[in-house]
Amino acid sequence: MRRVEKTLRQQARDSVNGPLMLLVISLLAYGSVMVSSATAGMTGGPGLFRRHLVGIAIGLVPMVIAWAIDYKKLKHWTGPLLILFAFLLISPRIPGLGTTAKGATSWLQVFGVRLFQPSEPAKLVFIVVMAALIAEYEGRIDKPRDALRLLGYLGMAIALILLQPDLGTGLVFVAISFTMLLVGGMKGRYFAVLALVAVIGIAGILGIDATLDRAFGRDVALKDYQKNRLLVFVDPGRDPAGAGYNLAQSKIAIGSGGISGSGLGSGTQSNLHFLPERHTDFIFAVLGEELGFTGAILLLGLFLALLIASLGIAASSRDLYGALVVAGVMGMWLFQILENIGMTVGMMPITGIPLPFMSFGSSAMVTNLGGVGLLLSVWSRRYGT
Fold first, then answer.
1. What is the pLDDT of residue 7?
2. Helix axis angle, 283-316 relative to 245-256, nearest 10°?
3. CA-to-CA dists, residue 378 to 67, 73, 282, 321, 329, angstroms
4. Is the Cβ–Cβ distance between 250 and 344 less than 8 Å?
5. Higher pLDDT, 181 or 97
6. CB 373 within 8 A of CB 67
7. How far apart are CA 287 and CA 283, in angstroms?
8. pTM of the prediction?
């Protein structure tokens, strides 16, 4: 009996990745402190903070479920999961279900109550599906038709996302795919061709966008606010009272923080309502102003440690499929970290991508914690159990 109990305790210890859990808990606590500070002076601030905590609690459910499921079994559900993925991205366009927010029809609502963004859980479904498809090639994607087949799934995802349209989420899918294809053994020349096609495609869309809008009498490829964001990124001084306002206020907030910041709840940009979307898209600007360079470095250190811990889990995987699942989650986190922090300082275009574990938003929080569950599933089965 004692031997059985000892074995069970050992299995329980082996299924938990201590460093990963400690880092996730630290990031959740850090994010909760910043959301509390950012919402303190807002109308309905206490309610928003409670919703943030509820989002974390809800996110623990998919985390535990994904942890409990043997990730290898998901490999055999590629077809149904692909259908689920397509449905999640199409669902906001179904009459009566979708609702528009911030220029994108990307939310689901029931009886007028906005529920969640289906594109968020779709990221995890996409990771599981792409991992299964890429794993079929056993680390050698060296034929053009193989690369085209895999890139075709990415093209489908981007096409469905652009129906909303949600350019930022589309870029996240590109980052996920790039990371997984790199780990999956796709040849470098295909990445070069893909990058060239992307540049030509973006330039082409920008070049003919105005013509298409006039021809159809509406925005076809890019919304006006999306084009303005790209133009402001190229020329930060353009339209400082309009499209460039958010970026200007974010830079002022971060720059005024200095080494140690003004203190929690003491940021003038936040308290005087100069900084828009401060609890969501620009939570890093609030952190920079109130906790300064020290607080920013602490957060970057936590993110770096999270990615290193995730890399260790990928390396521990006994099969390529598990490593690809972890790579997909890492690619999602890494791109969102770089994009969100980069846009607050003018190094990346503003896209509205949340900062993982930090920004207010239940849909993103549930997805990020679901990603943690996938990593734990891979880790707990590293011995082939």
1. 43
2. 80
3. 8, 12, 33, 9, 12
4. yes
5. 181
6. yes
7. 6
8. 0.88
